[in-house]
């Protein structure tokens, strides 16, 4: 991995602690390209990991990842630290972009419908993970295991498969209203298991 | 719940869409209905924010994937020609320094922020001078054979002098990692130069090309959006065009731009203040002197 503009950084920061993602994003909002490079280094593998989970194809995933980071660059001025962390902001944007890509291309429709259902652990083999991501993964996996099988299926199809609620309903052969309920109840359960509160 | 299932009519109880909304599982119409509902309910906004954060946890649980080095390089090259949006009005927006902020359309919220095409960037754009520079370049190349000879001689001299690395590198076609790293480092140095300047023009087939240069560092880079890949027996070649004729500045690799990205290259050799930078299509591996009409030429002044 390239480390661009490291020298600039040393000059800019007085303290030895690396700047937080929120701090970097705030600096990006002022047109700071070095801060953007640093933020990219920290977040790009997470963003690409998510995008590739949805799109499968690596080249297309890199393309969408580039679009996402350009959007980060453009709209960093709209980021409000008080409303949430930088990675939340970035990952929310990343997921939306990946889903947009799936919905806008016919190729997206042809993906194996089992992609979304496949177990969370499957795609987690030999990756360059850190302790941090491993812990996050295990925490989420544990929380997911507290859902009903039906909730887990619906959430996986929607989030990791990028399918709309209508498509989820069609695939699982259940009424749309049931899908809405499963998605909402399942996510609320996850929220409580993960201790997410705003 | 049984009374509201799958009717296809506007939502009678939009609150139940909070889960699907957080997972981006709504169609546009459903999303609009839910966002209208959010406007009217504080409770719904809180639940929606919490469920969105929960969805992010799902995202962070996926296995990280390391992007290629080329992705970052291409992205960093695009920043200069990508304007940032104006901050939304509010107490938090004490900054007034967002570049090209006035060129950005007002957007109601993050979810609706459209990608701003680089062509909308009014950053250093001078399309008029680009066209006339191309014309001058053409005249220089095709009506003054004497300077072509001089150019060839200059190219040979540079090659012998050992500072000319473009053709050799380009012959390998694929960019090696060390080459990519060297290019990225040069681009970073260029962008960090205090006197960095930019000028844009449109290529013959309608792609936005931006020349980034710094006179003090003698560095320059050409950045082209969505440049199509050439057939296997051709390459894009860059040239310095000065009083002494045309001197090759290396080949432009399109492996990134062919998939919709941005092709860029920090030019080999040194920029002389006022040089015009041109790009031609040449036989694979490049030519000692330009053999075709430049598809774009931009003057560094």
Question: Can you describe what's shown?
Answer:
- Chain A: Residues 138-190 form the RNA polymerase sigma factor 70 region 4 type domain.
- Chain A: This is Sigma-70 family RNA polymerase sigma factor.
- Chain A: Belongs to the sigma-70 factor family. ECF subfamily.
- Chain A: Pfam families: Sigma70_r2 (PF04542), Sigma70_r4_2 (PF08281).
- Chain A: Keywords: Sigma factor, Transcription, Transcription regulation.
- Chain B: The chain crosses the membrane at residues 146-170.
- The complex is a heterodimer of chains A (198) and B (301).
- By secondary structure, chain A is mainly α.
- Chain A has two domains: 1-111, Rna Polymerase Sigma Factor, Chain: A; 112-198, Arc Repressor Mutant, subunit A (Orthogonal Bundle), CATH 1.10.10.10.
- Chain A contains ten helices and no strands.
- Chain A has helices at residues 6-12, 21-28, 33-55, 58-75, 86-104, 106-109, 131-144, 149-159, 165-172, 176-194.
- In chain A, α4 (58-75) crosses α5 (86-104), α8 (149-159) packs across α10 (176-194) and α9 (165-172) packs across α10 (176-194).
- The radius of gyration of chain A is 18 Å and the shape is globular.
- The two termini of chain A are 35 Å apart.
- The relative contact order of chain A is 0.09.
- Mean pLDDT of chain A is 82; it is low at 1-15 and 112-128.
- Chain B is of the alpha+beta class.
- Chain B folds into two domains: 9-60, Arc Repressor Mutant, subunit A (Orthogonal Bundle), CATH 1.10.10; 127-299, no CATH class.
- Helix content of chain B is 34%, strand content 18%.
- Chain B has eight helices and eight strands.
- In chain B, the strands form two sheets. Chain B has a four-stranded antiparallel sheet.
- In chain B, β1 and β2 (208-214) form a beta hairpin.
- In chain B, α2 (28-40) packs across α3 (42-60).
- The N and C termini of chain B lie far apart (68 Å).
- Residues 1-9, 91-131 and 138-175 of chain B have low confidence and may be disordered.
- At the A-B interface, α3, α4, α5, α7 and α8 of A face α1, α3, α4 and α8 of B.
């Amino acid at each position: 991995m390239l480390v661009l503009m490291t020298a600039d950084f040393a000059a800019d920061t007085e303290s030895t602690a690396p700047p937080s993602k929120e701090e970097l994003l705030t600096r990006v909002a002022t047109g700071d390209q070095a801060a953007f490079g640093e933020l990219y280094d920290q977040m790009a593998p997470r963003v690409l990991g998510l995008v590739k989970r949805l799109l499968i194809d690596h080249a297309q995933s890199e393309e969408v990842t580039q679009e996402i980071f350009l959007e980060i660059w453009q709209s960093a001025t709209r980021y409000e630290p008080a409303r949430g962390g930088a990675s939340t902001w970035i990952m929310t944007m990343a997921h939306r972009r990946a889903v947009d890509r799936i919905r806008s291309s016919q190729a997206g429709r042809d993906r194996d419908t089992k992609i979304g259902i496949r177990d969370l652990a499957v795609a987690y083999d030999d990756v360059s993970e850190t302790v941090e991501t491993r812990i996050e993964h295990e925490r989420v996996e544990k929380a997911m295991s507290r859902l009903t099988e039906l909730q887990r299926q619906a959430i996986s199809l929607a989030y990791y498969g990028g399918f709309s609620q209508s498509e989820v309903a069609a695939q699982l052969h259940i009424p749309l209203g049931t899908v809405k309920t499963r998605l909402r109840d399942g996510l609320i359960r996850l929220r409580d298991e993960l201790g997410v509160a705003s | 719940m049984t009374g509201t299932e799958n009717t296809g009519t506007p939502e009678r109880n939009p609150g139940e869409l909070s889960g699907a909304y957080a997972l981006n599982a709504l169609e546009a119409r459903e999303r609009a209905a839910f966002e209208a509902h959010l406007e009217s309910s504080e409770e719904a906004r809180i639940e929606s924010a919490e469920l969105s954060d929960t969805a992010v946890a799902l995202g962070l649980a996926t296995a990280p994937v390391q992007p290629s080095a080329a992705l970052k390089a291409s992205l960093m090259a695009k920043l200069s020609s990508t304007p940032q949006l104006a901050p939304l009005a509010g107490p938090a927006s004490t900054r007034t320094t967002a570049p090209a902020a006035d060129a950005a359309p007002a957007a109601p919220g993050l979810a609706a922020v459209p990608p701003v095409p680089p062509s909308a960037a009014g950053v250093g754009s001078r399309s008029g001078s680009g066209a006339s520079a191309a014309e001058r370049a053409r005249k220089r190349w095709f009506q003054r054979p004497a300077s072509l000879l001089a150019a060839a001689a200059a190219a040979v001299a540079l090659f012998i002098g050992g500072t000319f690395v473009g053709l050799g590198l380009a012959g390998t076609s694929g960019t090696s990692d060390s080459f990519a790293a060297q290019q990225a480092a040069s681009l970073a140095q260029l962008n960090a130069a205090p006197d960095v300047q930019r000028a844009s023009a449109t290529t013959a087939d309608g792609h936005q090309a931006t020349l980034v240069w710094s006179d003090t560092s003698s560095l320059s880079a050409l950045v082209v959006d969505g440049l199509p890949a050439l057939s296997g027996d051709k390459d894009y070649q860059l040239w310095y065009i000065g009083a002494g004729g045309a001197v090759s500045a290396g080949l432009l690799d399109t492996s990134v731009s062919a998939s919709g990205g941005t092709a860029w290259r920090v030019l080999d050799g040194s920029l002389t203040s006022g040089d015009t930078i041109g790009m031609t299509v040449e036989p694979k591996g490049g030519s000692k002197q330009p053999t075709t009409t430049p598809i774009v030429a931009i003057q560094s002044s």
